[in-house]
# Entry
Amino acid sequence: MQRTEKYFEQDAFRTQCESIILAAEPDEKTGGGRIALDGTVFYPEGGGQPADRGTLTLPDGATLNVTDVHEHDGILWHSVDALPESAVPGTAVSGCIDWEWRFDKMQQHTGEHILSGILHQMFGAENVGFHIGSEAVRMDTSVPISAEGLQAAELAANRIVWQDVPVLVSYPTREELAALVYRSKKEIEGQVRIVTIPGADVCACCGTHTRTTGQVGQIKILTSENYKGGVRLSIVCGARALEAAQAMRARQAEIGALLSAKASETANAVHRVYDEYTALKFTHFGLCSQLFDALAAQVTPGADAIRIVPGLDPDGLHRLAVRLTEATTGLCAALTPNEKGTGYCLAQAGGDVRALTKALNAALNGRGGGKPGICQGSCAAEPEQVKEFLLYHIVKGKYTFTNLPAEPTWFETVATADTAKINMYLLKDRNPNIVFNNFDGHYKSSIKPRTSNLYNADGSYMHVMDSWLDRPTKEQLNMK
# Structure
């Protein structure tokens, strides 16, 4: 099959062409197909530049959307969203690219050439990575460059834009190429295409570019970060630079309105708010410490402590759980509602809460972990549901039951390890078939309707048990 003629290499501003189909193949994955043409205005993906988009129109009027273009062995294959029976080899087609899409890529690519050339001149930096993304252009340099250096390079690059110098394309002979100093990311076989921007860059490139640097409009570095011994830059050019400036202005106006500050004073206003926030955060830390001390003071040594405190961040959860472990050797849990459901921190002095944490995550769609004595995470359940789960496992581990449900009903315990007292409120299913063992007391009916009391063996009051829909009998409690 003959190679495809690349009309865009001679004229990047050409938007249409008349071509002949060389081959057509269906694409079972997309339901469309691939079409090879004898000549095309569509640029194929390569060299960091995305492929062109557009349409191919058949003689019968059928229009095929070109979604991607790739080159294989000199043949350019156009991915289309449909492949009608009339799309056969030898058929004439009319191609038309999406010009707005193409010109944007031309601005970004030419701007990258200018900035890369300037960085090479000023710092000896090689461009070791380049990609035109949907929002910005990514550039990776081979050497580190300071913020001041990048600012100076940005200014120098824009001066080239303001000078509106021509962007020249040439095809030097092998002898001419040997005497030419130019940038190239890889060894190139065959004819080399050189793009020259006077005063800025000489580079081997097969992409599409503007005719003059003035058509780039503007070059703006948005961000920079250290990357593999050099810097990774995010830049925008042309219309993208204008859009970025407009977006920045809109954000600044919004910030100014929120802080009641002029555009020139927003930085000072932000510093003021930050200082106020830092002071409030310090005060909040102290108040939380007082609250945690008070909650810990209410815990009976040896008892389990589950506390729900709204508004805690992960650090606050950790601090509360640790403070509770200083007051008891029982299981300690700090819970707080958050956007995911519940943030939790489980801890036990001298214990291992990892198995319980794993069970909680599995049952309540959670994520988290930690060390034997303390684990932290979040789950997709309400704090009361997490509390229910923990209490169920606490009681299940301390007492023996008959007919215990596989899943916990809602209950609460004030049991302690040394006295083995338990007070259970079955407020959901209120299953009357549960039989309690290990109680060291006896059962009496209360004068309150549908309410039961538990007493210790010496006759002292243990605690009120909330009424069940079907109150258990004395035999069900299986007292000694």
Remarks:
- The two ends are 96 Å apart (CA to CA).
- Residues 399-405, 407-480 have pLDDT under 50 and may be disordered.
- The chain has ten helices and 25 strands.
